[in-house]
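Support case: user asked for a sample of complex input and structure output to validate their parser. Sending the pair below.
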Amino acid sequence: KAGVTQTPRYLIKTRGQQVTLSCSPISGHRSVSWYQQTPGQGLQFLFEYFSETQRNKGNFPGRFSGRQFSNSRSEMNVSTLELGDSALYLCASRINSGSDEQFFGPGTRLTVL
Amino acid sequence: GESVGLHLPTLSVQEGDNSIINCAYSNSASDYFIWYKQESGKGPQFIIDIRSNMDKRQGQRVTVLLNKTVKHLSLQIAATQPGDSAVYFCAEIPPRTGANNLFFGTGTRLTVIP
């Protein structure tokens, strides 16, 4: 069974631009969560989607948004990029929203110049 | 608010020795804890978990200990191998936040010296 895949793996943007990251969960998994990982803050929860609906949301500004499609694939969007948005963005999938174990993808490394 | 921190940012051990990675958490009501391993260029990988009704849980070469009195977690790796070199995170799930509201520490980098 293929793992969680994320595209692109690396991305360079400039301040003010917007970016869209994609995540394909493990086949059969319906819950997708997004995390931001930085050296200073560690892993921080962004949001979770289940059945195309946002179920939980972390403490990030409205510039960070996401969505989930009927095939459980998810995208996250960051608008008006800031230097501080440079981070590794990780996607994790699990079977259902109430399941404990999450499986992480390799992440998308975003650099904002 | 909740916070999960790690006592040591780096740890170096000799191959074959046992490793102990520590973690402190602040929410005494948290009822579920997970240890993750993250290798360079990869996402975190689940290692072992423990619920608050347990003090100890063992896996293959790994043991997690939970001390609720002092709000402390530790991950013990037996006979550490070079493949164990990675960053290790502990994460807690406070109650009533949903299993996806994991709070992670910044991680401890474990280096195994051959």
